[in-house]
Design brief:
Radius of gyration: 28 Å
Order of helices and strands: HEEEHEEEEEE
Largest sheet: 8 strands, antiparallel, barrel
Structural class: alpha+beta
CATH architecture of the largest domain: Beta Barrel
Number of strands: 9
Helix content: 25-40%
Number of helices: 2
CATH topology of the largest domain: Lipocalin
Number of domains: 2
CATH class of the largest domain: Mainly Beta
Strand content: over 45%
Distance between the termini: 73 Å
Amino acid sequence: SGMAIWVSVALVACFENKELLLLERRLAALENRLASFERRDHNLCDTQFPLLQGVVTYSGCNRNMIRAYDKDWAGNKTVETCQSGTLEMYNTSTTPTSGLFDAKLQVISTPDPEARGSIYHFTCTYTTDEPHTGTCTLTFQEPPKKVGPALVSIHLRDVAPVDGVCIAASATIVGNYFYDSRQVAAGVYAFYAPAH
């Protein structure tokens, strides 16, 4: 009778272990399937031109140098300042297919009183080999001011589908501007959106 109880307990334990093993395998299969669906959604946007949704805050710093021998030139010395503001993409109705869009940076906070409140407008394009990096050129500034050429790259990150459109959750903005007859300084900047 003791042996029958032991065999009975062993059979129940064996059955429970087998059932547990089957449940664990089924759970693992379901988790893999879910991960596959999530990867497929993200992969869907890997080659698509994304958008930023609405107005996004940014912050970061820039460094520039006054043109040699101009007024206020301090020799081989650069000046670093930081700022924050907003980034917005617009004219985006064809962006998902053409890769073309416009963007604007509005300066909200900066130690430079002349730049505070300025809005810089850029015309941009994505390319199929870098679908999440917009290359942009400065087109105009508000209020109007004589500014020299400037180039910006907007690197969009954390892109995922939202209601059938690929939307980026964040961006890095890298820009540079050059000396010319209207621009007395040359420099670079890196801004991060949303603001850190």
